[in-house]
Amino acid sequence: MTEFLHQLLAGLSTGGIYACVALALVMIYQATHHINFAQGEMAMFSTFLAWMMINAGIPYWLAFVLTVVVSFVIAAAVELVIVRPMQKAPELSIVVVFIGLLVIFHSLAGWLFGYTIKQFPSPFPQDAWYGSALMSAHEVGTIFVALAMVALLFAFFQWTPLGLSLRAAAQNPASAKLVGINVGRMLMLGWGLAGAIGAVAGMMVAPVVFLDPQMMIGVLLYAFAGALIGGIDSPIGAVIGGFIVGVLENLMGSYVVGTELKLSVALILIVGVLIVRPQGLMGRRIVKRV
Q1: Looking at the domain assignment, is residue 39 inside a domain?
Q2: What are the TM regions of this chain, as residue ranges (predicted)?
Q3: What pLDDT digit, counting tens, does each position of 22-60 carry?
Q4: Residue 32 domain flag
Q5: Residue 25: which domain range?
Q6: Can you give the pTM of this predicted structure?
Q7: Whose CA is closest to 63, among 137, 213, 71?
């Protein structure tokens, strides 16, 4: 029973990371109605930037904040320079652009930082009071960071004029323009927020899986599964779906399929959701009149 509780709580920890990346995917989907396949590689590149700052002697939390800010700027620049000119391009062309971004960030990280595995420090001491035999301090801290970020984003979208403008621009760009909202600026803000969220997720997962250019590939797949389960157009659903996938992945990997095959759990979840309930648990069913 103790081992089961440990796996369950560890699943919630990894689920918090998946929830963050799934939230970033949903934010970009709401803005562009496309999946950003480069989201994981952008998060990985941001984590390398944090690693470089920490090795240069910058305190962890200052490097954390600087990385989030730089990641915001990079993602916003990607939207402005690369994604926005492709707005009226065929869907297949946009998919190719996202795949190209994935390859660019992956190759750039390998070229600048190398392909050797590196250790990334955890901001949560191993002997912290909130750690226990069931959950390490880093696992508890990861859940706290994920929930705090979700709460901040919820407050931003619900109670700030800028957040409401961003929601309006993402959901109905034409109507948003009529009331004076700069839709292009709002979409750029959405991309920036997604980049910042991805950076946080990368810095939380790096102490567990170690830092290398491959580290976010599996995380992105699990996060995509979480976004589909919760609803690809529902931020709250993406968070719930991320936690569900984290728990299922840990339990299935420990007691059913083994660690070698647990990545297949995400693929099964993706296919199952697309067949049974394509809109996800909290997504909207879109009906078009013809």
Answers
A1: yes
A2: 6-28, 60-82, 94-117, 137-157, 187-209, 215-232, 263-280
A3: 888 888 887 777 888 899 999 999 999 999 999 999 999
A4: yes
A5: 2-213
A6: 0.88
A7: 71
